[in-house]
Amino acid sequence: MIIDCHNHPDWYGYNIERYMDNMKRYNIDKTWLLSWECPDDEYSPTYKKQVPDASLPDGPISFRRCVRYAEQYPDQFILGYAPDPRRPDAIDKLDHAIRLYGVRVYGEIKLRMMYDNPDAIRLFRFCGEKGLPVTVHIDYEFATGSTYPRPNWWYGGGIDSFERAVKACPDTYFLGHAPGFWAHISGDDQYDKVAYPTGKVQPGGKVGEMLRKYRNLYCDISAGSGARAFSRDPEFAREFILEFQDRILYGRDYFDNVHQEVLGSLHLPDDVLAKIYSGNALKLVPLS
């Protein structure tokens, strides 16, 4: 079985028909289908070409679209929903979605806020009570060469803010994701200078340190950030995966096959691949 732990409805022009064909093409049995609820002024206008609900209050990728997919193909999609913790009704909205639609994941949270602020911590602890893993997107602030409408697009406040949230919510499972997380697979200083660091991985990476320290932290390898973190230093990647094989989840955040190709190139044991492709996802979100 293969479970894609990170994707979105109507993302990059993939409507439901193209989506189902794509899952079949790459032998994906189930997908965690995640919303992205974010104020219109907190994401780059360049996204508006790819997101279906640009400028709408529940956009840029609404939970409504996730529900629509799951209603048509209930055996293929596991619902994720992440209302903005800064909204006073966030927990109520999430609780309603759990009871009414069977939401199983809180994700994706991708907001210009510190992930350890009190409102977020309160919501993350609620997720722990309800058994929902939390998928977080982290991006750093660094020079992009642009000045308008914002000089950069940071999310989450960096790895330290995320670590404080993980520590404050020991009964909640978190999945680290995106450039600001995977850059810390290495102990170098590239994480706040470029989106996709290159070169051999250096000792002392924060991701490894946190995985050893916090039993409630998992890794979502989706998007270019996860694929590049492994492909930049294949020898290190293989050892990393073997060490943390019980807490790494396969995901894509797109519709290509690069992550299966990267994993296939590392000559991993079949039992390890089985954990990454589905076993670890099923630990967090068992089949009902």
UniProtKB/TrEMBL annotation:
Amidohydrolase-related domain ranges (all copies): 3-287
Domain of life the protein comes from: Bacteria
GO molecular function: hydrolase activity
SUPFAM superfamilies in the record: Metallo-dependent hydrolases
Any single Pfam family the record assigns to this protein: Amidohydro_2
This protein's name: Amidohydrolase-related domain-containing protein
